[in-house]
Structure to design on (86 residues):
């Protein structure tokens, strides 16, 4: 369930911080982002979604991890599109 504060005031937090909390297992920085990217690839592969399809990517990520809010999901979708395999 989205945080009420984010809904009322907007989400101004750095999206990588939420990804670190969800996927970093206590690790911060690039390692946590790499873990989030690896998780995202697994999600997209299992659902047959192309990382180039931004909206479907965001939907698949948020369905797989309900705690993932919109802004970090969008950021992760952008990272996945940039790092997609040819």
């Amino acid at each position: 369930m989205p945080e009420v504060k984010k809904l009322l005031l907007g989400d101004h937090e750095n999206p990588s911080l939420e990804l670190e909390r969800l996927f970093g297992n206590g690790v911060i920085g690039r390692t946590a982002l790499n873990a989030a990217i690896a998780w995202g690839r697994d999600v997209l592969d299992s659902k047959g979604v192309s990382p180039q399809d931004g909206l479907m990517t965001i939907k698949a990520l948020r369905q797989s991890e309900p705690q993932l809010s919109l802004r970090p999901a969008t950021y992760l979708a952008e990272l996945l599109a940039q790092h997609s395999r040819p």
